[in-house]
Structure formats: structure tokens, C-alpha cells
Specification:
The structure holds two protein chains of two kinds.
Chain A lengths: L1 H15 L9 H23 L7 H23 L3 E3 L4 E3 L1 H27 L4 H20 L3 H19 L6 H32 L4 H10 L5 H17 L8 H8 L2 H26 L4 H23 L5 H17 L5 H4 L1 H32 L10 H4 L1 H15 L6 H14 L3 H30 L14 H19 L2 H10 L2 H4 L2
Antiparallel strand pairs in A: 1-2
Helix pairs in contact in A: 2-3, 2-5, 3-4, 3-5, 4-5, 4-11, 4-15, 4-20, 4-21, 5-6, 5-11, 6-7, 6-11, 7-9, 7-10, 8-11, 9-11, 10-11, 10-13, 11-13, 11-15, 12-13, 12-19, 13-15, 13-19, 15-17, 15-18, 15-20, 15-21, 17-19, 17-20, 18-19
Chain B lengths: L1 H25 L5 H25 L9 E9 L4 E7 L3 H19 L9 H20 L3 H10 L1 H11 L4 H29 L9 H4 L5 H18 L8 H8 L2 H26 L1 H28 L3 H21 L3 H32 L10 H4 L1 H15 L5 H12 L9 H30 L5 H4 L8 H19 L2 H15 L1 H7 L3
Antiparallel strand pairs in B: 1-2
Classes of the chains: A mainly alpha, B mainly alpha.
């Protein structure tokens, strides 16, 4: 039996000719190579050092993230689009912007994790190795232009994240977080794979650009294609926690270690959107008839339901979880006018992701800093924060109102580009969705302002005014995110030009 | 020197306060005196820049934008940093740069509970940047950003330093205004994409000509909500009495004197010039809401038992006169409206100052408990009397020029508007002035006349203090001065109204 199979394989191989290794562009791979190198290094250092020297691990991992940024910058300066493996792996401006976001977000999350992981009697080495592996998956996701590499990247970024969510292993909530996230993630993967198989069956290719060419010309009445598109997009809707596929998010966010929550809410969500962008703008190009209504409905219910449930939360992490669900709705909105707005929608989404990264990581940084003192994440534990930790209170105020989209804080630019893309379509459905977004941003203000109210206008619980000691690593993360949030709002040019750069994705698709 | 004021004057006036606020961030919180004087110094410097601008302004060309600066800001979305001053914005900028230092002077020994002058002063300075910025912005997006910058500091001023119901009032204020401005930004963008892809307010009136009538009506509707809530127009006024009643004295003063004007200014500067046809279609409805506001505000005033809340409701009525004047779409009406804004800013600002001082002395604003202010603090009583008279529109004081021309303008609305309707509005508004006299005189009678109530009969009530005199005199002088020489405002605004607000009306709607 084996012999038969073996000989069959041999014939197949000889028919296809001798295996030729594809040309590798090491410059294009350099960020991924640096991360792999760091990962191995952290693993080895962890293996051969004792507990006292474990402090070196987060530093190593952080330096690795920053080092990987160097080739990203040289590639961006080089400006040349690099296509490998017959178009399955592309390094263009879009992927570089997203890689930079993943690496910086990863760096900040490592800063946030340093003290929590070191003090909590956890395995340090494994934590950072898993995080590096997950970031590696994201880097690959940014460049993947083939169903198979998209799927591999997705699993590579998700599987470490499942484990990280359950890292506080003696805590039932954390176990629940990891398990729920895992079950939902696998379920989503299955649905998505089914959709992918239909796509492959219908078009005969796994390359996104080939699929785009085949689907764009296919008659619009073929239900199988509609089904395939919906399944694949729904798979990623789980990843970005869009309603009604959001049910894992609040429990996972609450149970996971808070730095990992920040990681899931920012980096993992961004990775889901990257895949969605690649699919919508390359593979489903010309199929707005399916994509637009699906995204319209997803966006509208995601932001509305997310916001309404967020109103009732009493735990700040759960509130931020539902807020991030609602924010996902804002981010999906431009995809609902992708046919008419085109590049405008892509620019809006990328700009939103960049700004959202800064402000949301910042908000989690404050939550981590405060809960180190209060040991609680209840909104009421923020009472009177302004009196004994004015710096943290002002920073949190900046992040919250930025999330609400109040000028001159960064968030307004994010909301603005979404409005802009919706109205640039000049369709009634776009305008109606813009009004839905407008109403939702008012609802959202209420729960963001509620936390601000606690910090500024409520008494300190138990009258415990001992100052909050913020470790240096968290301080540096806070400075980075505050400066970015303010600068993006006052000089939007800083961030919109990256969004604009990334807008060239469609042109690259061969 | 004139080169410098031409290219940097406005920018300096806008950003000086926020730079001052940034400096104050670095000073430790315990040095309360230093904070007060730095804030005072910064706001006086801003006043200096404002006076410099006023002095360099070419009054013969008040219809043109002056000191224009046009620099790139957000290229990707085609929005630019364009600022300039013309006759419409000049009086409002003058009002703003004057009111803020007066408020800071008043606060020098009146920082409300829970203290913390550092945060209080920083917020007032950020507020000043937002207010001046809104009046000078000539780019829709820039305007929107400044319009919103005002919200956060005001939210905290009300919510932290306000009265017992402050948290509710603060969030209500924030949510109402944000709802309006969220729809406003949607309107701005619709204007951009349906018009000529520009946010430049100078170019938009021409660029917007091609937009279909239906789209114009919708876009105007969005702006109407944004500005109308801010004014506030009936039935969007419900945030105002709460915000005013709960806000600290200085917050109420700034809210009444400047913030409400952002809404009416928006109508005059943006909504009407850019969408004149839609404005003509909306005008009868706006006029109707305005007169409802006048009567409703007056009736609500008669029912109030709290002095501050009464003054707040009188704002609804007064802004109703201003909106009625705007809705006539005539040069006369718009001039009257701008005069109304300035007069209301001075007078109601003063009334809130007085309410604050009464509260400080009697620890209550319950009208039933007050009485005999004239006996216990004669100066305070007389100043209160003067302001009440000014507010009810006594000729010879500023309030008269805000109210009387507004009513008169409704007699002859723009040619495209239904004359009978507006004449009806005129009659209703005129009845409103009778109510105004009623509630203000009754308020004055109950609080200032007669003998002090037993509760306070033996309490020594101190009269107007030196600091209060310093803070109030400029306003009192202006109330009298504008009352006697209204032309100091009308002469500045008239050309600008013709060339900037109504140029399209004169050619477009007037002909059609």
C-alpha cells in the first residue's frame, strides 16, 4: 500500500519536474526572521538561566520587537513592492504599515506584561515565546495573499493567544477565558475553512488575485459563491468580535491577564481586519453585491449592540471589551460601501486601526496601573482617582474621550475618516449608516464619560489615598500612547498619510 | 509690526491660552497663588492680543476677512488651517477675550468647592482656545474641531465644581451637544462630497450651488440640529437650565456669554451662507420654534423658584429673539441677531455673576428666602437692578438693541418668506417682551425690595467687593455704552452681513 502511494508520488514529482527552491528575498523576510531569531533566543535563554535572571526575558523580547521594526522601515524607505511565491506572499506598503502596527503593539504589550508576569509566579519564558510566535503570525498575515497562507497565519497567531488567555491557570475565570476563546476560535476556523474550500472548488485557485478574477466575472446568481463569501467573512467576523459572533469577547477579556486582553483587543483584532481587507479588496473584488449588505448589517448591529451592552457594565475591563466590540462596528462600516468608496474605505479602516491601537492600549495601560493598587477592575474602584493620581486620571481621560471621538484627541480623526468614507460613496445606504455611526458615538460617550465621572467627581472608595506606584515599563507605555493619541488628533497628517500609503493595496494585486 | 499681526495675530490669540495651560501643568498643584496669577496673566495677554487685533482691524473693509492665514493642515482630507476675522466674528471675539479674564479675576478668591485652582484655571484656558478658535476658523473641519474642544472643559467645570446635581447636568450637556455635532459633521462631509470637494468656508457658498434641493434640505437639517441644540432652540433646550443651574458661577457666565453664541454664529456663518435655498425653506419653521422658545421661556421663568434657574430660562427666551431675527434672512435681521448675541452675552453674563455673588452671601438662590438685597448690599442691589432692566430691553441699555430690532425685522422678512407668518411671529414675540418685563421685574421685586427675610436679617451681608468691581465694571460700562451708541456694533457687522452671510440670498433666493 505504502509502496503504491510512494511510487504515485514519485511519478507526480517527476512529472512536475525536479523541485526548484523558490527565489527568496531575504530583505523582504527580514522582520519575520528577526522575530523567529528572538523567539529562539528567548527560549534558549530561559532554558539556561535561573529565576533571578528572568528579568532579561521581557527585555529581550521587547528589543526583538523593536529590532524587527528596522527592516520594516528599510523596506518602506526602499518603497519597492516585493512579490514572492507566485503572488502568495506580498510585501507592499499596506503590509508594512500593518507590520509596524503589530510590532509596536507587541512591544507595548510586553511593557505592560513585564511586572504582572514577573510578580505573578508564572512561567516567564514561555509567555514571551508564545507572544512572539503570535506576533509572527500577524506579520505573516499582513503579507499573506493566498488562502492557505492566510489560514496558516491565522492559526499561528491564534493558537498562542488561546494559551495566553488562560495564563492565570489557577484562576477559573482565566481558564474559562482560554477555553471559550479556543472553542469559539476553532468553530470560526471550521466555518471559514468550509468557505475557503468552496472558493477553491469554484475557482480552482487558492491565490486571492486569481479568486478575485474568477469571482468578479461570475454570474451574480450563483448561490454557492455567495455562501462561500459569507462563510469566509463570518469566520473573520469572529476574530474581530463582530455581533452576533462576539459572545466570547467579554468573558475572555475579563478572564485573561489584562495585558493579554489589551493584546487581543488591539493586535489580534487588527490582524482579523487585515485578513478581511485582503479578502474584500482582492479576492471579493467586484462582488459588492454580497459584501456590502453583509457588512452593512454587521456594522450596524455590531456598534449598536456593543454600545448598548457596554452601557450596563460595572467592570472596566468588560466595559472596554464591549466598547471594543462597538469599535469593531465602526471599523467594519467602511467595508459596507467598498464598491463606491473603494480606496477611501481601505484608507479609513487602516487609519482607524492605527489610532485605535494607540488609544486602546493606553486605556488598558491605565487599567493595569490602577488595578495594581486597588486589586480590582470595577469602575467604582476608579473613584476619586484624580485626587491621588492626577497623572493617571488625566491620561485615562484622554484615552476615554479619544475613544469617544472628541476632538482634539486622536479618536476624532478615526471617526472622521469613517464618516468620510461612508459619505464619499454618495449613496443613501452610506449616508444612513453614517447617521447610525453618529448616533452610536453619542451612546458610546455615555459609558466612557461614566468612567471619567468616577475619576473626577466621585469620592475615593475607603478613603485610601496612597499614591499609585507605576512601574517604569508601564510608564513608558503610557507616555508613548498619550503622545500618539494627542499628536494624531492635533496633526492628523501624521497618521492619515500611513492610511493613505496603505490605500495602494488594490493597485498591487497582480 | 503690522506684518506680524497680519500673519500671527489670530494664531497667537487662539493658542496663547492653551500654551499657558501647558505651562501650568508643570507647576505643582500646591502653589495655588501662582496658578491663579499665571492664568490671569495668560488671559490678559490674550486680551492684549485681542485688542491689538481690534486696533489693527481695517474697519472700512469690515466685510472682508482680515488677518487671513491659510496653511496646510490635513492634506489627505483636503482640510486646511484657514483663519480670519470679519465684521461678524469681530464683536464675538472681543466678547470672548474680555469675558475670560474677568471670569478669572472673579475666581481669584471664589474658586468653588472642591478647590484645586490648577485644574480649574487650566480648563478655563482650554475653553478659551476652543471659543476663540471657533470664531476665527474658516475651514469646516477646523471649525468642528474647535467647536468640540469646548465640550470637554465645560463638562468638567460643571461636573467637578458644580452644584448638587452636577454630574447629571454635566453629562446631559455633553450628550445633547455631542448628538448635534455628530450629525453636523455628517452634514459637513455630505456638503464636501456633493459640493466641490472643499471645506473652505470662503469658497463653499459658490461650490454648494449645484447640490440638489433635497440633499440641501437634509444637509441643512443636520446643521440645524448641531447649531440649534447649542443655541438652544426649543425643544432642544432642556439641557440648558440644568447646566446653568448646576455650573459654577464662572461656568454659567462663560456658557451664557459665549458658548450659546457658537450656535447662532454657526447659523450666520455656515448654515445660511452656504445653503441659502434650504435656509429659506427651513426659515418659517426655525422662526416658529424661536417664538415658541420666547413664550415658553418666559412662562417657564414665571414659574421658577430658583434665581439662577430663572436666569437660565430667560436665556432660552432671549436666544429665541436672536433666532427669530436670523430666520428672517434679511440684513437687518442678521445684524439685529449679532447685536442680540453681544447684548445677551454681556447682560446674562452679568446676571449670572450677580447670582453667584448672591449665592455666596446668602448660601441660597431660593427666591422665596431672599429679599431686601437693596437694603443689605445696596451696590449689589443697584447693579442687579441695572442688569435686570437691561435684560428686559429698557431703551438706553444694550438689551434694547438686541430685542427691538429683532422684533422689527420680522415685519419684513426676506422676499421669499411668507410675510403673514412672520408678522404673526412678530406679534407673539412682542407679547414675549411683556412677559420678560414681568418675570424680571417680579424677580427683582421679590429679591431686592422690601425687608430682608428674618433668616438673614441679622446676618451681615458684605457689599460688592473690590475684585467684583474689577470683574464687573467693564461689562457694566459696555452695557451702557452699547445702549447709547449701538452703532459701535452695527457699523462693524453691517458690511460683513451683506457680503458674507447674505450675498447668496441677495442674488439667489431674492430673485427666485
Amino acid at each position: 500500500m505504502t509502496a503504491v502511494l510512494g511510487s504515485a508520488l514519485m511519478t507526480a514529482a517527476s512529472e512536475a519536474g525536479d523541485f526548484v527552491s523558490p527565489a527568496l528575498d531575504y530583505h523582504a523576510f527580514a522582520p519575520e526572521i528577526v522575530i523567529v531569531g528572538t523567539l529562539v533566543l528567548v527560549l534558549l535563554v530561559d532554558l539556561f538561566t535561573d529565576e533571578e535572571n528572568a528579568w532579561a526575558l521581557p527585555s529581550l523580547a521587547g528589543i526583538g520587537m523593536l529590532a524587527a521594526l528596522v527592516p520594516v522601515i528599510t523596506l518602506a524607505l526602499d518603497g519597492q513592492d516585493r512579490v514572492m511565491f507566485g503572488g502568495a506572499y506580498v510585501v507592499d506598503d499596506f503590509s508594512l504599515v500593518m507590520k509596524a502596527l503589530f510590532l509596536i503593539a507587541g512591544y507595548i504589550v510586553i511593557q505592560l506584561s513585564t511586572n504582572e508576569i514577573a510578580e505573578g509566579d508564572y512561567h516567564e519564558g514561555e509567555y514571551y515565546v508564545l507572544m512572539l510566535a503570535s506576533v509572527l503570525g500577524m506579520l505573516i498575515m499582513a503579507s499573506a495573499r493566498d488562502l492557505i497562507s492566510v489560514f496558516v497565519a491565522l492559526e499561528l497567531l491564534s493558537i498562542p493567544a488561546y494559551m495566553l488567555a488562560a495564563w492565570r491557570k489557577r484562576d477559573f475565570k482565566s481558564n474559562e477565558a482560554g477555553l471559550k476563546y479556543y472553542m469559539m476560535g476553532v468553530f470560526a476556523s471550521a466555518i471559514m475553512l468550509y468557505g475557503m474550500s468552496l472558493l477553491y472548488g469554484k475557482t480552482g485557485s487558492t491565490k486571492l488575485s486569481d479568486i478575485g478574477a474568477a469571482l468578479g466575472g461570475a454570474p451574480s446568481s450563483e448561490p454557492v459563491i455567495t455562501l462561500a463569501i459569507v462563510f469566509v467573512l463570518v469566520g473573520f467576523a469572529f476574530k474581530v468580535s463582530a455581533v452576533p459572533f462576539h459572545t466570547w469577547a467579554p468573558d475572555t477579556y475579563e478572564g485573561a491577564p489584562t495585558p493579554i486582553t489589551a493584546y487581543l483587543a488591539v493586535a489580534s483584532k487588527a490582524a482579523g481586519f487585515v485578513a478581511m481587507i485582503n479578502l474584500v479588496f482582492i479576492a471579493f473584488l467586484g462582488r459588492e453585491d454580497v459584501v456590502e449588505p453583509l457588512m452593512w448589517v454587521l456594522a450596524a448591529i455590531t456598534m449598536t449592540v456593543g454600545n448598548l451592552i457596554a452601557l450596563r457594565q460595572t467592570n472596566v475591563v468588560r466595559m472596554l471589551a464591549y466598547s471594543s466590540v462597538a469599535q469593531a462596528g465602526f471599523m467594519i462600516a467602511p467595508l459596507a460601501v467598498v464598491g463606491d468608496a473603494g480606496e477611501e474605505a481601505l484608507t479609513a479602516l487602516v487609519t482607524y486601526l492605527l489610532i485605535y491601537g494607540a488609544m486602546n492600549l493606553g486605556a488598558f495601560a491605565v487599567v493595569i496601573a490602577v488595578s495594581r493598587k486597588t486589586g480590582s477592575a470595577e469602575i467604582s474602584s476608579f473613584g476619586g482617582l484624580f485626587e491621588y493620581a492626577p497623572g493617571l486620571a488625566v491620561a485615562m481621560t484622554i484615552f476615554l474621550f479619544s475613544l469617544a471621538g472628541i476632538p482634539p484627541l486622536g479618536g476624532w480623526v478615526a471617526k472622521f475618516v469613517v464618516f468620510r468614507s461612508l459619505l464619499s460613496a454618495e449613496t443613501v445606504s452610506g449616508a444612513v449608516l453614517a447617521v447610525v455611526v453618529a448616533v452610536n458615538s453619542v451612546i458610546a460617550l455615555y459609558y466612557y464619560a461614566n468612567v471619567a465621572r468616577q475619576m473626577w467627581m466621585q469620592p475615593v472608595p475607603d478613603d485610601d489615598r496612597t499614591p499609585v506606584r507605576v512601574p517604569f515599563a508601564i510608564q513608558s507605555a503610557l507616555v508613548l500612547t498619550v503622545v500618539a493619541t494627542l499628536a494624531f488628533g492635533v496633526f492628523p497628517q501624521m497618521v492619515t498619510r500611513f492610511g493613505d500609503m496603505a490605500g495602494q493595496l488594490a493597485a498591487v494585486a497582480p | 509690526m503690522s506684518d506680524f499681526v497680519d500673519s500671527w495675530g489670530i494664531t497667537l490669540a487662539v493658542f496663547l491660552p492653551v500654551v499657558g495651560a501647558a505651562v501650568m501643568l508643570l507647576i505643582p498643584r500646591e502653589m495655588e497663588k501662582v496658578h491663579k496669577y499665571v492664568a490671569l496673566g495668560v488671559s490678559l495677554a490674550t486680551l492684549g492680543v485681542g485688542v491689538w487685533l481690534l486696533a489693527s482691524f481695517d474697519y472700512d473693509r469690515s466685510g472682508d476677512l482680515q488677518f487671513v492665514v491659510d496653511r496646510s493642515w490635513i492634506d489627505v482630507i483636503n482640510s486646511r488651517y484657514i483663519v480670519g476675522i470679519d465684521g461678524i466674528s469681530l464683536p464675538l471675539i472681543a466678547l470672548t477675550v474680555l469675558i475670560v479674564p474677568l471670569c478669572i479675576i472673579y475666581s481669584l478668591n471664589h474658586v468653588p468647592d472642591p478647590g484645586n485652582p490648577k485644574a480649574f484655571m487650566i480648563l478655563i484656558l482650554i475653553l478659551e482656545t476652543g471659543m476663540i478658535g471657533t470664531f476665527v476658523a474658516q475651514d469646516l473641519i477646523l471649525f468642528f474641531v474647535f467647536f468640540e474642544v469646548v465640550l470637554l472643559p465645560m463638562y468638567f467645570l460643571i461636573g467637578v465644581w458644580g452644584g448638587p446635581d452636577r454630574q447629571y447636568a454635566a453629562i446631559k450637556f455633553f450628550l445633547f451637544t455631542l448628538f448635534g455635532s455628530a450629525l453636523m459633521i455628517v452634514s459637513f462631509l455630505a456638503l464636501y462630497f456633493l459640493g466641490a470637494e472643499t471645506f473652505d468656508m470662503r469658497a463653499l457658498p459658490e461650490a454648494a450651488v449645484g447640490i440638489s434641493t433635497t440633499a440641501q434640505l437634509w444637509i441643512f437639517g443636520g446643521m440645524f440640529l448641531g447649531f440649534g441644540i447649542k443655541v438652544p432652540l426649543f425643544p432642544f433646550h432642556t439641557w440648558l437650565p440644568d447646566a446653568h443651574t448646576q455650573a459654577p458661577t464662572v461656568g454659567s457666565v462663560i456658557l451664557a456669554a459665549v458658548l450659546l453664541k457658537l450656535g447662532t454664529y454657526g447659523f450666520v456663518r455656515i448654515a445660511i451662507p452656504i445653503l441659502p435655498e434650504a435656509a429659506a425653506d427651513w426659515a418659517p419653521w426655525i422662526g416658529a420654534l424661536a417664538v415658541i422658545g420666547i413664550i415658553y421661556g418666559a412662562l417657564a421663568c414665571l414659574a421658577q423658584t430658583d434665581m439662577k434657574r430663572l436666569i437660565a430660562f430667560s436665556s432660552v427666551a432671549h436666544m429665541g429673539f436672536t433666532m427669530l431675527a436670523i430666520s428672517t434672512l434679511t440684513p437687518f435681521g442678521i445684524n439685529a441677531a449679532i447685536m442680540g448675541m453681544v447684548a445677551h452675552g454681556l447682560i446674562t453674563g452679568m446676571l449670572f455673576f450677580i447670582a453667584g455673588s448672591v449665592k455666596e452671601r446668602y448660601h441660597t438662590l431660593d427666591i422665596a428666602k431672599l429679599g431686601g438685597i437693596l437694603k443689605q448690599a445696596p451696590h449689589l442691589g443697584w447693579i442687579f437692578g441695572l442688569c435686570a432692566m437691561a435684560s428686559l430691553g429698557l431703551p438706553g441699555l444694550a438689551g434694547f438693541w438686541g430685542e427691538f430690532p429683532a422684533i422689527m425685522s420680522a415685519y419684513n422678512p426676506a422676499p421669499s418668506l411668507p410675510v403673514e407668518t412672520f408678522r404673526t411671529y412678530m406679534i407673539i414675540a412682542a407679547i414675549g417682551t411683556v412677559f420678560a418685563a414681568g418675570y424680571l421685574l417680579w424677580l427683582y421685586q421679590r429679591t431686592a425690595f422690601g425687608e430682608p427675610k428674618a433668616e438673614f436679617a441679622d446676618t451681615p451681608i458684605k457689599d460688592v467687593t473690590a475684585l467684583e468691581w474689577v470683574a464687573w465694571l467693564p461689562l457694566l460700562i459696555l452695557i451702557v455704552l452699547i445702549g447709547l451708541f449701538p452703532n459701535i456694533v452695527f457699523s462693524v457687522t453691517d458690511d460683513a452681513v451683506l457680503s458674507n452671510t447674505l450675498s447668496a440670498i441677495a442674488t439667489g433666493v431674492g430673485a427666485g
